[in-house]
Write a structure and sequence with these properties.
The complex is a heterodimer.
Chain A lengths: L7 E5 L6 E2 L5 E2 L2 E8 L9 E5 L25 E2 L4 E2 L4 E5 L14 E2 L4 E2 L9 H14 L7 E5 L1 H12 L6 E5 L7 H15 L16 H15 L2 H7 L19 H16 L2 H13 L8 H4 L6 E7 L7 H13 L4 E6 L7 H4 L2 H18 L5
Parallel strand pairs in A: 5-8, 5-11, 6-7, 11-12, 12-13, 13-14
Antiparallel strand pairs in A: 1-4, 2-3, 4-8, 9-10
Helix pairs in contact in A: 1-2, 3-4, 3-7, 4-6
Chain B lengths: L2 H9 L5 E5 L5 H10 L2 E6 L2 H10 L3 E3 L2 H5 L7 E7 L8 H11 E9 L4 H10 L23 H9 L3 E9 L9 H4 L2 E8 L1
Parallel strand pairs in B: 1-2, 1-4, 2-3, 4-5
Antiparallel strand pairs in B: 5-7, 6-7
Chain lengths: 377, 193
């Protein structure tokens, strides 16, 4: 095996067998970019599907050739790590609607010979899960040992568990929710408005032209504030000045936190597509597993084992939201464990707090694998 | 195996559904799964203990006992266990009522604060007792409630709670004579009349 990882692509739903989206619109062909780590055993019983968060991608672990940085969850996935690639076959795919190799608004619309832009149909969390089921079927996997993700990734894992309960042995839901609340929708709407009010956004038609860089940057700055906690920002930046010894009494930046957010905003423009951000954030806002009804009824017949993890300082996806999920699972006698890890990193904890999560994930998976003898090659 | 765990195991029918309130590192639930083929779950407030539970494969919820019990419907469990946790609870009356709601039977394990060693220390030393079973001093004890076997029996009789079984334990074995004086720990199997 090469020491580098490579993104692979799977194209399916060719007309006339298009993917039928939740909205009723047909979409096809669809391509998913995905990566795998470790080896699928002969029984195909050691596969774990990882779902990425809003601006993540298929590159969850390892290094691409000539890359400086590893994948987004590298501390958790690899040989001897929590998702141990010596034992498990780990899969991560870029979601439908994304911009990292999977079909999305920045992809070429074959009928028009140019990028879809806003003519791309609105996709939902449900559609993303259905698309990834095609991939799992393509890989010949009938039952996943586990599915896991943080934030939007947690929503996807939850939706998978409810939609395809027979295909999932266990699921690990981290810093997530079962429906977006008014505050979560509101924060997304500000981010979307920032992008759409940038003149360069041009109603989504900016491909090959100037990017809506300013709008993207502002939306990302907002996002980053919501991913941290007040305390983690205070610890990281405080009122430290950046590049100057005293206040400038002007509107160039003074404080380190300002310069950090600007840097984050700027680098986001290079790595993400503005329209994808609109589509994916909308998909999150539309999601409501309870369909405005009783959440407990949704879990009827689900036999998947769950581990639900939250963080004390996460105010974007606060613990009580996961506790609602746990309560609804308990009402259905589902085997579920819940832990609230004491951290200061806010919502970012799922990417940063590795020690506690590693212990939990490795032991949880160990016990699941033991019960179904899924480790054997 | 801990003496109290040994006797709790004896009280529980095989293949039961058990909830342990304040399950710690999940040791008792592990024993119940192994020797009695029980379906189990626990509630525990200490984050460090949750990791140990998950390592043992014990399903557990991180949180306090009060709000944890509210998640369950009536008579959901065959047994609810409150071992060595009642004395640390802010509102034991409510928790026992809730435990009797979600469980068909409840097992309560208490340290006997009126054990003879404690009584002698109070009488002769004139100080709050520190014994093997009650190793804390007044300023660092986690215990909020101080009760004896007699106190708990009185509590039950006033509330239509039936004591189906009482087991008084000394340093290592069951005590039959003068339990309220000689026992260090007591276990009660109770149900709602």
């Amino acid at each position: 095996m090469s020491q580098y990882v490579e993104t692979q692509y799977y194209t399916f739903a060719h007309p006339p067998h298009e993917l039928v989206l939740k909205s009723g619109i047909k979409l096809g062909p669809v391509t998913l970019a995905y990566e795998t780590y470790g080896k699928l055993n002969a029984a195909k019983s050691n596969a774990i599907l990882i779902f990425h968060a809003l601006t993540g991608d298929a590159h969850a672990a390892g290094f691409h050739q000539d890359a400086k940085d590893p994948g987004w969850w590298d501390p958790m996935i690899g040989s001897g790590k929590a998702f141990d690639t010596d034992k498990y076959f780990v899969i991560c795919a870029n979601v439908l609607g994304g911009c990292k190799g999977s079909t999305g608004p920045s992809s070429l619309n074959p009928a028009m010979g140019k990028p879809w832009a806003l003519s791309f149909p609105v996709v939902t969390i449900e559609d993303m899960v259905v698309a990834q089921k095609y991939l799992i079927d393509h890989l010949g996997i009938k039952k996943l040992l586990s599915a896991s993700g943080g934030s939007m990734g947690g929503l996807l894992a939850l939706e998978w568990a409810v939609r395809f309960p027979d295909t999932l042995q266990s699921a690990i839901l981290i810093a997530t929710n079962y429906k977006h609340t008014a505050q979560q929708i509101a924060l997304h709407e500000v981010a979307r408005q920032a992008i759409m009010s940038d003149p360069n956004w041009n109603k989504g038609d900016y491909y090959g032209k100037a990017l809506p860089a300013q709008g993207m940057a502002v939306s990302r700055m907002m996002g980053h504030i919501t991913y941290m906690s007040e305390r983690s920002m205070e610890e990281k930046f405080g009122r430290k000045l950046k590049g100057k010894e005293k206040l400038g009494y002007d509107f160039s930046h003074d404080f380190e936190v300002e310069s950090y957010l600007k840097y984050r905003g700027k680098s986001f423009v290079q790595r993400f597509d503005a329209n994808s951000y609109l589509y994916l954030s909308k998909a999150l806002d539309y999601f409501d597993l309870s369909q405005e009804g009783d959440l407990a009824t949704v879990f009827k017949g689900v036999e998947t084992k769950f581990l639900v993890v939250t963080f004390t300082s996460d105010w974007l996806y606060p613990s009580y939201q996961s506790k609602h999920i746990v309560k609804a699972m308990k009402a259905n006698e589902i085997d579920v464990s819940f832990i609230e890890i004491d951290t200061t990193y806010g919502h970012d904890s799922f990417l940063v707090e590795i020690e506690g999560q590693s212990k939990l994930v490795s032991h949880f998976l160990n016990n699941i694998a033991k019960q179904c003898h899924c480790e054997e090659r | 195996m801990r003496t109290d765990h040994k006797y709790i195991l004896q009280m529980i029918e095989p293949n039961s559904h058990v909830l342990d309130l304040g399950c710690g590192d999940g040791e008792l639930l592990t024993l119940l799964m192994k020797y009695k083929n029980c379906r189990t779950t626990g509630i525990e407030i200490d984050e460090k203990e949750i990791y140990k539970c998950v390592e043992r494969g014990v399903s557990v919820s991180h949180g306090d006992i009060d709000s944890g019990l509210a998640d369950y419907s009536d008579k959901r469990f065959d047994y609810v266990i409150l071992n060595e946790s009642l004395q640390e609870i802010l509102d034991p009356e409510k928790v026992i009522a809730e435990a009797l709601r979600v469980g068909k039977k409840v097992i309560v394990g208490i340290p006997n604060f009126c054990n003879i060693v404690a009584r002698l220390q109070i009488f002769f030393l004139g100080k709050v007792p520190v014994t093997e079973g009650l190793p804390y001093t007044w300023y660092n004890t986690p215990n909020l409630r101080f009760l004896s076997i007699k106190d708990f029996r009185e509590f039950c009789s006033g509330r239509q709670i039936t004591i189906e079984r009482q087991l008084a334990i000394g340093t290592s074995k069951e005590i039959f004579l003068w339990p309220n004086l000689l026992a260090t720990v007591a276990l009660f199997l109770i149900s709602k009349s």
